[in-house]
Write a structure and sequence with these properties.
Oligomer: single chain
CATH architecture of one domain: 3-Layer(aba) Sandwich
Shape: flat
Low-confidence stretches: none
CATH class of one domain: Alpha Beta
Largest sheet: 3 strands, mixed
Strand order of the largest sheet: 1-2-3
Distance between the termini: 93 Å
Number of helices: 3
CATH topology of one domain: YefM-like fold
Strand content: 5-15%
Radius of gyration: 34 Å
Length: 107
C-alpha cells in the first residue's frame, strides 16, 4: 500500500496508475490525512445478468415484449389524446396590416 500527498500524486500520477494496474493500493492524503483511494476499475461483465431469481416460477420477458403494440393497446396505455389533432395558428404578421409611422417633412 502506498500513501502519497496530493502534490506528489499530481506530479507522479502515471506511475501510481501503473502501480494500481499491477494490483497495488494507493491512498491519496491531504496533509498526511487519507482522503481518497486510487484503485483499479472492476472488469465489465460480458453477459447480461440473470434476473430470473427475482421472479421465481415466472418467465421474466417473453418474445411478445419485443413486438409493437396494437392501436387498442396504445390507446389503453396512453389514454385519450390530450392535444387536438390540428392546431389553428395565425400566420405571422411580419408587418402586413401594421400601421407604419410616417416621417414628418422638414421645412
Amino acid at each position: 500500500m502506498l500513501m502519497v500527498n496530493i502534490a506528489e500524486a499530481k506530479a507522479r500520477l502515471s506511475e501510481y496508475l501503473e502501480a494500481v494496474a499491477r494490483g497495488e493500493q494507493v491512498i491519496i492524503c491531504n496533509r498526511n490525512q487519507p482522503v481518497a483511494e486510487l484503485r483499479a476499475v472492476a472488469p465489465q461483465q460480458t453477459k447480461p445478468r440473470d434476473l430470473s431469481p427475482l421472479f421465481p416460477g415466472r418467465t421474466f420477458m417473453t418474445d411478445a415484449f419485443f413486438e409493437p403494440m396494437s392501436e387498442a393497446e396504445l390507446q389503453e396505455w396512453y389514454g385519450p389524446a390530450v392535444f387536438p389533432a390540428k392546431v389553428a395558428e395565425r400566420p405571422p404578421a411580419y408587418g402586413e396590416g401594421k400601421p407604419t409611422r410616417k416621417r414628418k417633412k422638414r421645412s
